Amino acid sequence: MDACLSSGQQPQPLDEAPRPLDEEGLHADGSSGPLGDSNKIEPSLQSLQKFIPTNYASYTQEYYRFAGRKIVIQESIESYGAVVWPGAMALCQYLEEHAEELSLQGAKVLEIGAGPGLVSIVASILGAQVTATDLPDVLGNLQYNLLRNTLNHAAHLPEVRELAWGEGLEQNFPKSTFYYDYVLASDVVYHHYFLDKLLATMVYLCQPGTVLLWANKFRFSTDYDFLDKFKQVFDATLLAEFQESSIKLFKGMLKWD
Predict the structure, then answer these.
(1) Radius of gyration of the chain from its Cα atoms, rounded to whole angstroms
(2) Are the C-beta atoms of residues 57 and 78 closer than 8 Å to each other?
(3) What is the dihedral of CA 167, 171, 172, 178, to 10 degrees?
C-alpha cells in the first residue's frame, strides 16, 4: 500500500482557509478558473459546488498515494470528520488492489461517513460513480478535497450529500431512485451513541446485490458488540485483517428472508 507520503504541517489563518486550488484551476469556493472548455466542466461543478468549508483555526495538508496518483487531503484535528483515520487507509488499499475484481469502472458507490474524502477520492479515480455523505459541518471540507483531487482525474465527478444516520432515509434516498453497487464505510464505529442508527442506515442503503465494505479499527468492546449485531443482519466475510493496527475489513451482504 502506498500510504501517507508526508505530514507537512501547514496551518492556515481563518481568512485563508481553505487554500485556492491554483494547480487545478479552482478557487476555494469550488468555482472554476481557466480550464480550457469550461462549458463541459461547469454543469458537473455546479452539481458538486454546494457547501462552504468550516473555518477551523488551522488546517494541514496531508499527502497520500493511491491508484497511481498523489492525493492531497486538507485535514484538521478540530473535527473527527476532518481527519483520515486508519480504516480509510486499509479500505483504500483494498480498493486499489482489487479494483478489477470489484468492477469499479462505472459502479455506483456511496460512502457513509466520508470525512475528508480519501476513500471516495480513490474510488472515483478508479472509475466509480461516487456519492460521498457525512454530516453538514464537514461537507464543505469534503467537497473541497473531492474537487481538488478528482477534477480532470476521474471519469465521474463525485457527488456530496448530507446524511445523518437513521434520519430522512426514505425521503432523501428513496429506494425506487437510488441503488448502489457498493456501500463503503471506514472507522464509522467508535465510542458514540448512534451505533443503532448507523446499522439501520447500512441496512437501508443495501438492496439485493449491494456489497457493503466496512473497514474499522477495533478499539472498544462496543465495537465488537456492533460487529455481533452486524452479523445478525449481514452475511459477513472477513476480507483482510491488519493485526498491527487492529483493523478488520468486512464484506457484508444483507440477509434476505
Answers:
(1) 18
(2) yes
(3) 120
Contacts of 16 (CB under 8 A, 6+ apart): none
CA distance 112 to 138: 13
Q: What are phi and psi of 61, to 5 degrees?
A: -105, 115
Cis peptide leading into residue 208 (ω within 30°): no
Model pLDDT for residues 95-148, shown as the tens digit of each residue? 999 999 999 999 999 999 999 999 999 999 999 999 999 999 999 999 999 999
Indicate the length of the chain as a whole number.
257
Interatomic CA distance for residues 141 and 196, integer angstroms: 27
Rounded to 5 degrees, φ, ψ at 20 are -65, 150
> How far apart (Å, rounded) are the C-alpha atoms in residues 19 and 15?
10
- 89 is written with which cell numbers? 487507509
Strand partners, 159: 131
Residue 57 confidence (pLDDT)? 82
DSSP 3-state of 104: coil
Q: How are strands ordered across the β-sheet holding 247-254?
A: 159-162, 129-134, 108-112, 182-186, 211-217, 247-254, 234-242
Four-residue CA torsion sign, 223, 252, 203, 187: positive
| CA–CA separation, 223 and 41 (whole Å) | 43
| Closest CA relative to residue 125, chosen from 148, 101, 143 | 148
